[in-house]
Design goal:
Elements lengths: L1 E5 L3 H12 L7 E5 L16 E4 L2 H7 L2 E4 L6 H8 L8 E4 L13 E5 L15 E6 L5 H12 L3 E4 L3 H30 L6 H20 L5 H8 L5 H24 L1
Helix pairs in contact: 5-6
The chain binds NADP nicotinamide-adenine-dinucleotide phosphate.
The site of NADP nicotinamide-adenine-dinucleotide phosphate has 27 residues, from helix 1.
């Protein structure tokens, strides 16, 4: 079976790297198409199973499975010219957040990957890909998508547009929110000590990593963890009081902007 990826930006590159690194996930050939061919030229020498092109029709003619990963407003413009060249058995998947585009003939699966799933040899399966199939996607095609993304990420299948939006915020936007939050925090601390911003950032990132592990593995619930760290009138409690007062409003504003 051949798979084509159209669009080699942040997500197209992430998907390609994961698929290649997982020994092509049982695919015969991987077609990678990008508008700017020079961006993908280096891929053609990696493995004979990779074909590169700037012609999306070549992907449509050769691939049973096609993942479109262009900016959301470009999705329809990329999909429409493919239609005359695909068969009833072609499966179309897209990664575009914030669209309700339909394709009744073949059905559409939407997968929202996350930059957290960037390939890393030491930890090849991470991040959560959010998946929603429309009603025209066959059971076999659903299984294909879910199996493929399970190779390099956790998956969460949702069945309503609102769940898709919420899960997208949690899995796909959150890495950027976390990065900004740590960066701002490290910047504030820099002015007050001899540690460089980079040194403080590393401490924060390691703390985030180990705390996330404790919470993810249910070693402590959020409440238990807070109680283990904070003592009455101690500095952690003072910090928690500030966050308790200000964070709910920030999150309310954030969510109302995004939904
Ligand atoms: N970034 C994230 O963390 C993230 C997470 C989840 C979902 N998404 C969604 O995934 C989609 C892609 O996001 P991205 O961040 O990867 O975008 P991006 O970095 O802007 O990449 C888009 C790619 O599409 C290519 N392209 C544009 N028109 C094309 C065409 N007609 N034929 C072939 N290739 C074409 C562009 O080629 P050029 O090289 O010529 O510009 C570019 O490489 C978006 O809809 C976004 O909402 C993104």
């Amino acid at each position: 079976m051949n798979l084509g990826i159209i669009g080699y930006g942040n997500i197209g590159e992430l998907l390609s790297q994961n698929i290649i690194s997982h020994d092509f996930c049982n695919l015969n050939k991987l077609y990678i198409a990008n508008r700017t061919l020079s961006k993908i030229n280096h891929l053609k020498d990696i493995d004979p199973r990779i074909s590169i092109t700037d012609d999306n029709i070549e992907v449509a003619k050769n691939c049973e499975k096609i993942i479109i990963s262009v900016k959301t407003p470009d999705l329809a413009n990329v999909l429409d010219p493919l239609k005359p060249h695909i068969t009833k058995n072609t499966q179309i998947i897209h990664t575009c957040a914030g669209t309700d585009l339909e394709f009744k003939d073949c059905g559409l699966s939407c997968v929202i990957p996350t930059i957290s799933s960037t390939y890393d040899e030491d930890n090849p399966k991470k991040g959560v890909s959010i998946i929603m199939h429309d009603e025209n996607v066959s059971g076999e095609n659903r299984e294909f998508v879910e199996k493929l993304f399970s190779k390099f990420s956790q998956i969460k299948v949702v069945d309503s547009p609102m769940d898709l939006e919420i899960a997208t915020i949690a899995a796909s936007c959150m890495p950027a929110f976390i990065a900004l939050s740590l960066d701002l925090f490290a910047g504030e601390l820099e002015e007050k000590c001899n540690l460089s911003k980079e040194e403080t950032f590393k401490i924060l990132a390691e703390t985030l990593n180990s705390t996330a592990y404790i919470l993810k593995e249910d070693i402590y619930s959020p409440d238990e963890l807070i109680n283990k760290v904070a003592t009455k009138n101690g500095i952690t409690q003072k910090g928690l009081d500030v966050l308790d007062k200000d964070l709910p409003d920030i999150y309310k504003r954030l969510i109302s902007k995004l939904l």
